[in-house]
Automatic annotation (TrEMBL):
Domain Pyruvate carboxyltransferase: start-end pairs: 8-275
EC number(s) from the headed UniProt entry: 4.1.3.4
Gene Ontology molecular function: hydroxymethylglutaryl-CoA lyase activity; metal ion binding
Protein name in UniProt: Hydroxymethylglutaryl-CoA lyase (Leucine degradation)
Key words, A-Z: Lyase, Metal-binding
């Protein structure tokens, strides 16, 4: 295993991966105000929206307007998801400078999510990646269901490796490997990360955990033991997977920050400002979000900063 990183980079995916799962469409004004708050936390990367056909994700049908209206903070990368060249063209037309393409490591999920086989998905994404790179864009590649598929169960690590390497061969700048239904344990993380790091540079590998079974923070810590330092997270723990009953969504940004602060790992992100952004979207949605630190804040009986009482060995 590698050395635990001294600094971690958090990629905020709530505005896209969180809101796309909301049953009700969130007003554009709320989205813009929330993203502007996230921009003030110290986060350097925010995934804002998706340029997937609005018929498939009506919750993000206002992608152009949101991208146009957000207040762009200096030094912050604002990205968007694109499914193909058509989505890429929409993103480029509004001035998006960083995009992400996506596919699954399991055949059944890929067919359900993209309506194509894995083999048929490769040329579609390759065309989009090539055009994005030709336009000077930063390109990320998502691999979903890397630890488990709601239809096929456990996904073989070699299958994840094969899909990952194909995306890297296309020319993506960064690979984000996702536990879409939140079934991974630290042992699974050690096994997959060990394999991937034989072919993938540490500065090109990100991990994306969901907290369905309460393992996300433990899985992040396991990945850090290999030196991984890029992690996706969602403000308030917003999000989820429709194929996983009881799924509680993405790991919460605030909970990742709590872990890092306790371990003495730098993030450059204000814990209090991140909590404020999560409280804002929680209030706007009118329901309780699953972030542990939001729950702890609501139930706190004193004003002591208890986060400072917890230190873990490095």
């Amino acid at each position: 295993m590698g050395t635990q990183p001294q600094r971690v980079q958090i990629v905020e995916v709530g505005p896209r991966d969180g809101l796309q799962n909301e049953p009700d469409v969130v007003p554009t004004d709320v989205k813009v105000a929330w993203i502007d708050r996230l921009s003030e936390t110290g986060l350097k990367r925010i995934e804002v929206t998706s340029f997937v056909n609005p018929r498939w994700i009506p919750a993000l049908a206002d992608a152009e307007e949101v991208m146009r209206r957000i207040r762009r903070a200096e030094g912050v990368q604002y990205s968007a998801l694109v499914p193909n060249v058509k989505g890429l063209e929409r993103a480029a037309a509004i001035g998006v400078e960083a995009v992400a393409v996506f596919m699954s490591a399991s055949e059944t999920h890929n067919r359900k999510n993209i309506n194509k086989s894995i083999a048929d998905t490769y040329p579609v994404l390759a065309e989009a990646v090539q055009e994005a790179k030709a336009g000077g864009m930063f390109v990320r590649g998502y691999v979903s269901t890397a630890f488990g598929c709601p239809c096929e169960g456990r996904v073989p690590v070699e299958q994840v490796r094969e899909v990952s390497l194909r995306l890297l061969e296309m020319g993506i700048d960064e690979l984000s490997v996702g536990d879409t239904i939140g079934v991974a344990t630290p042992a699974d993380v050690h096994r997959l990360v060990d394999l991937l790091l034989k072919d993938v540079a540490i500065d090109r590998l990100a991990l994306h955990f969901h907290d369905t079974y309460g393992m996300a923070i433990a899985n992040i810590y396991a990945a850090m033991e290999h030196g991984v330092y890029i992690f996706d997270a969602s403000s308030g723990g917003l999000g989820g997977c429709p194929y996983a009953p009881g799924a509680t969504g993405n790991v919460a940004t605030e909970d990742v920050l709590y872990l890092m602060r306790g371990c003495g790992v730098e993030t450059g992100v204000s814990f209090e400002a991140a909590l404020g952004a999560a409280e804002f979207i929680e209030g706007a949605l009118g329901r309780t979000l699953p972030a542990h630190n939001l729950r702890a804040r609501r139930g706190a009986s004193c004003s002591n900063d208890r986060a400072d009482l917890h230190q873990c060995s490095r």
